[in-house]
Amino acid sequence: MRKLIVSLSLLVVYACKKDIDEKEVKVSFYEDKKEIVKKEPIVEKSEGILVCDTIKKDYGKIKKNDLVHQKFTLYNKGKETVTILEFDASCNCTSLEISKKNILPSDSTIVAMRVETKDKTKGLHTVNATLKTNGKRTFYALSTSFEVE
């Protein structure tokens, strides 16, 4: 019976240790609470590098409620695959689509930016997109500008 209890205890300790190893405990200094959050996976740094023809595009004059569609093509000029880890737009009016997140050497991906202008006021506007990669260059900022008439 004693061996069974010791075996179960070791099993519980091992299971708890493994569970904690896969998570990170976050402690707040301002409150008496602890929060367990999942650790982000470690991504290997790549020697690949993405190159874009242009990172800024001017859509020109548009009417209110028009949709702005811009496409940015990024080419992998490096010798290793580049992975797009995160992407985000500077405005809730903007959606982003990426044709592929893993870009092989000599391959490309297209970042399509779609901007809703129904809530935009008259005048010049600029919307930005930020990409984070594991390549030699970590961050990319893409932008499109337009003027609402």
Summarize the structure.
This protein is mainly beta.
**Biggest beta sheet attributes:** 5 strands, mixed
> What structural class do helix, strand and pairing data support?
mainly beta
- How would you name the CATH homologous superfamily of the largest domain? Immunoglobulins
Shape: globular
**Rounded radius of gyration (Å):** 23 Å
Specify the number of helices.
1
- The total count of strands amounts to 11
**Whole-number average pLDDT?**
83
Characteristic terms for this protein:
single chain; 149 residues; mainly beta; Immunoglobulin-like; 2 domains; five-stranded mixed sheet; four-stranded antiparallel sheet; 11 strands
Task: Describe the SSE topology.
Blueprint: H1 2-21, E1 23-27, E2 34-38, E3 50-52, E4 56-62, E5 67-76, E6 82-89, E7 94-98, E8 102-103, E9 108-116, E10 123-133, E11 139-148
Parallel strand pairs: 4-11
Antiparallel strand pairs: 1-2, 3-5, 5-9, 6-8, 6-10, 7-9, 10-11
Structure notes:
The chain is mostly beta strands and 149 residues long. The protein has two domains: 2-38, no CATH class; 50-148, Immunoglobulins (Immunoglobulin-like, Sandwich). It is 13% helix and 50% strand. The chain is built from one helix and eleven strands; from the N terminus they run αβββββββββββ. It has one helix spanning 2-21, and strands at residues 23-27, 34-38, 50-52, 56-62, 67-76, 82-89, 94-98, 102-103, 108-116, 123-133, 139-148. Strands 4-11-10-6-8 form a five-stranded mixed sheet, with no helix packed on it. A hairpin with a 5-residue loop joins strand 10 (123-133) and strand 11 (139-148). It starts with a helix and ends with a strand. The model is unreliable at 11-23 (pLDDT under 50).
